Amino acid sequence: MLKRENVAWYQDGAVKILDRRVYPSKVEFVVCKDYKEVAQAIADMVTQSGGPWLAAQQAMVMTAYQVQDQSVDKAKTILREAAYAVTHARPTTSERMVAVVQKVLDNAEAALEAKEAVGPSTEEFVLEQVEATYQRARIIGQNVVDLLPDKVTILTQCFAEWLIGFTLLVCQERRKNVSLICPETRPYLQGARLTASVAHDMGVPVTVVTDNMPGYLLSQRIPDVFICAADVVTLDGHVVNKIGTYQIALAAHENNIPFYVTSTPSADNPTIDTVTIEERNPEEVLHAMGVRTAMEGVKGYYPAFDITPPKLVSAIVTEKGVFSPYDLKIYWGKKQTK
Amino acid sequence: MLKRENVAWYQDGAVKILDRRVYPSKVEFVVCKDYKEVAQAIADMVTQSGGPWLAAQQAMVMTAYQVQDQSVDKAKTILREAAYAVTHARPTTSERMVAVVQKVLDNAEAALEAKEAVGPSTEEFVLEQVEATYQRARIIGQNVVDLLPDKVTILTQCFAEWLIGFTLLVCQERRKNVSLICPETRPYLQGARLTASVAHDMGVPVTVVTDNMPGYLLSQRIPDVFICAADVVTLDGHVVNKIGTYQIALAAHENNIPFYVTSTPSADNPTIDTVTIEERNPEEVLHAMGVRTAMEGVKGYYPAFDITPPKLVSAIVTEKGVFSPYDLKIYWGKKQTK
Q1: Which among A19, A231, B85, B216 would be 20 to 30 A from B111, CA to CA?
Q2: Contacts of residue B254 in chain A, CB cutoff 8 Å?
């Protein structure tokens, strides 16, 4: 699994972000010296999946250290500006990211009021939050692996960061015969470049296919299950995830293959109408690995996410247990099962 | 539309085949000096879609010229070997291609028996067959355009050669407000490189998307119709076409958008059980535009075609008219409508 220090981390006065646009052919870091550079890096998809969540929190740590010598009011203003910038770099996940970063901001403001050193306080708080994220991902992994047979071929989509990492790790701990199929996930190829690398590094047999192949694989019953995370799960059971998830879910449903979504329902998104689907620069779909594919003059179109309706989803798997997509409101009143 | 001379043509003692693996960024031809080189070029996907049909027939012309000074028996043997090699370079379309090339072989053998010059005789015969193919494609284009509204956004898949070319041309002749959406069609990107180029050259507005996007576009009702050709349409109504067609057809069906297949049912494939799905070199899916995508050690898998069942197909559009996929046997007893 990618270590958090190799995703995005505050160190020596800057946030270092692994440049996933070139990984694994190159291992390079983008070094951000202020929160604006972090926001820009998130917008530019230097990192994605869980990466922006780490990067945004680390930007808050960096900013907290940078404002330590300012007046309390000035420091608060800058920290609020930072929190807004890093959570709004991409629209689709803004509501969920605000919820996480707001806690960091609240802690920092309390530290400032109490005349504590806001830098170390924020750093410690964020470390605790990140540890909790890992712990939550492990429990979600345990809960989804509970649903899998002993010999299992998992089809996934894009790069689900720690969620797919812990799912595979728990499979290994339980000595399941697990293998993974990754659609390459154009245009950025996160499946081929990131998910496949993580699985291969863990010793899990992994096969990459192009994004036009999952339907056929499901019709041939090659995968036993389709599992992905989500950028947003709305309380009315819609799954917003990397473009392509919907058509894979359709094919899984058509072929009676279960589809599990490993993600916490978003209290900030009661219905699908509250979600904005980000459209990215159309030029990006006209290139592959940096090489232009289409003739000049041909247009592109790049919606970054799609929407899978609840009828295609077998279960939403959370750290509190397994839920029907039609029954997510009870998540917020339920205790953890493990 | 790509002129036939720019697809695959016999000239100056060799068959020149446009190298579609690098088009449109480079315009290069593979020059084949004997039928074995043509068969290898087809297997290597130097050309595809309608290209192998032209290349195979042109290989027969070249071979006919090459055997003119041989004994009749020797000439026949070589021509039969050539016919076998060029029709069996790729498995999925072999039956259909044999049917076409067998006619060329029969004509050549008759010329040899009659002591006519087999080279010019074969060349003339093939020219007539190719003209008939174009004429048939135009009529199919007319028949499918009959089904379209005046303002129409067509979603297609891969590169349907003359069939998509004539469909767009007939739309223009009838002054329809037509635009095209091309999934890029990994791993070879025929949609981005070939179909989009043909449409753009014709002045048709064209948008390229990645292969994980058609489902979302269909859910948003951006295309009005999904139209593709097929490598094989079996008499029991299954459509065998470029991998990805099945999952697009599923999404079209789910969203009540019609799916028309412009292709002649294959009398040589009464049921889907008679079709072999070609699996190509897995390394090809691990590269994009010649650049490696995944880490070394990660495996690939490359089924070249998929199977769309008749329940997802709105109509099979032929030169004899429009058929239900459940009623294809009557095609062979029916006259042309135009």
Answers
A1: B85
A2: 250
Cα A138 to Cα A47, A154, A166, A173, A320: the distances in Å are 22, 17, 5, 12, 12
What does chain B come to in residues?
338
- Distance (Å, whole) CA A102 – CA A87: 9
For residues A109 and A175, membership in a common domain is answered with no
CA distance to partner chain A, nearest, from residue B333 (Å): 33
How many whole angstroms separate alpha carbon B36 and alpha carbon B47? Answer: 15
Range of the domain at B203: 146-333
Query: What is the chain B residue with the closest CA to A297?
Result: B200
Residues B313, B254 share a domain = yes
Contacts of B185 in chain A (CB under 8 A): 212
Three-state SS at B90: coil
The whole model's pTM is what?
Answer: 0.92
Q: Are residues B62 and B8 in the same domain?
A: yes
**ipTM of the complex in this document:** 0.91
Tens digit of pLDDT at every position of chain A (338 positions): 567 778 999 999 999 999 999 898 899 999 999 999 999 999 999 998 889 999 999 999 999 999 999 999 999 999 999 999 999 999 888 888 999 999 999 999 999 999 999 999 999 999 999 999 999 999 999 999 999 999 999 999 999 988 999 999 999 999 999 999 999 999 999 999 999 999 999 999 999 999 999 999 999 999 999 999 999 999 999 999 999 999 999 999 999 999 999 999 999 899 999 999 999 999 999 999 999 999 999 999 999 999 999 999 999 999 999 999 999 999 988 665 54
In a shared domain, residues B116 and B186: no
Nearest to B253, CA basis, from B213, B225, B211 = B225
Q: How many CB pairs under 8 A join A and B?
A: 200
Domain tally, chain B: 2
Residue B69 falls in the annotated catalytic set? no
